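Something for you to look into today, if you have time. What I am after is a single protein written out in full by you. I want to see for myself how the chain folds. Could you add the entry underneath, on a fresh line?
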Amino acid sequence: MNARGYQRNYKAQSLNTMTQGELLLLVLDELVKRLLRGDLALKQENYALFEESIDRCIMIVRYLDDTLDRKYEISWQLHRLYEFFCYDLNRIKIGRNQEELNRLRPLITDLRDTFREADHIVSQQGGDRGSV
């Protein structure tokens, strides 16, 4: 097996063994990474990369929204938060607005950190780690 095949197999196996909380954190980490990439691209006036990064952020937020289990009250609150993120990301993209991007990034980073802390608490309690 070549190195790429091994890496692909390893990644697939890693994803299959992750808890739901770990998968959520992986997606949120990717969202934060894409926001940072978009921020850097905007500062460098690389508008193609900026728009690509923001489009990817919007796709990730929509995915997060689509995977919510609506039978829980917190899901409806997260849905409204995700709608706000998508709205603001679209405004940032259209206006190439660095100031708004700088305002939004900490909100998304805080959300990721909150989920990380919740996953940590659940794992320490020995509970079902998939419940985050």
DSSP finds five helices and no strands in the chain.
